[in-house]
């Protein structure tokens, strides 16, 4: 359940990141270019400003906007978490306040209010796009109130101060529409993509199972058809042919009960061991199925080589090979039971082999045979 919730959050986060480019290099670059433009226009429009504290306030406004823009692009989560939303909104309001109240009274250039108002609109529009339109609109209204007060204090007129903030609401409306309309669509698109990927994985698994089934049927047809044909035709079998038929039956049974050990070297070693009179039992309880594909392939090859070596050494008695169920400390075990000794060799997924008897050493000392 927790895993499904996490995957769902990842899908939503991926939808926002990919659909709107949040955190992407092009958006970082665009924000950097805007920051450079902000700085150039600010310096140009305020070249007549000589007051130290005025420049401190103007620079502080730039720093506030830069911090808000950084948080917008860098903070993960969808929608934008509440604490960063509050911080970004406060930074936008503080940036406008510090910038406007640091300008000369009256204004000396028509573009002096442009950079802070424009920066606040961009930052808050992204807040809306990232799923917090109410916070963005609240901060925008506060900025309009502050601009109205500033316009009155700066002798520009309260309505003039309000007017400089009104064009930004068009961008705010677009950001809000993106949030309310396109975000759900993006989530649905990425949910559909994830569903398609799951279906593709199921189809691949079904195809793999069909291939295994086809291979086993082909093996049955190749090995058993001649015998079954002779049975249908009521032909008599010699003692050697009966022995071969029993070996084929045992081999086919191995492919069903121990599919992960159904490899050429294991089949050949088991066939020869049975010819010598050794009783061979191969069992598979699924321990390899939980490993990653590459790790499972390496472990299967090492185990097959080790089993083939043990079967080649067996001259009599019983050899039982078992791949353990998932979750065991050991991946597989091989039990060798002869008239004069009983030996158990255990293998781990890491590639080590441990023997409980010193009479017959484990294959390749304490390491599995190499691929």
From TrEMBL:
Membrane-crossing residue ranges in chain numbering: 20-40, 52-73, 85-103, 109-129, 136-153, 159-182
Entry keyword annotation includes Metal-binding? no
Q: Which UniProt keywords apply?
A: Membrane, Transmembrane, Transmembrane helix
Q: What is this protein called?
A: Signal transduction histidine kinase
Q: Does the keyword Transmembrane helix apply?
A: yes
Start and end residues of each stretch annotated as Disordered: 351-371
Q: Where is the composition biased (Low complexity)?
A: 351-365
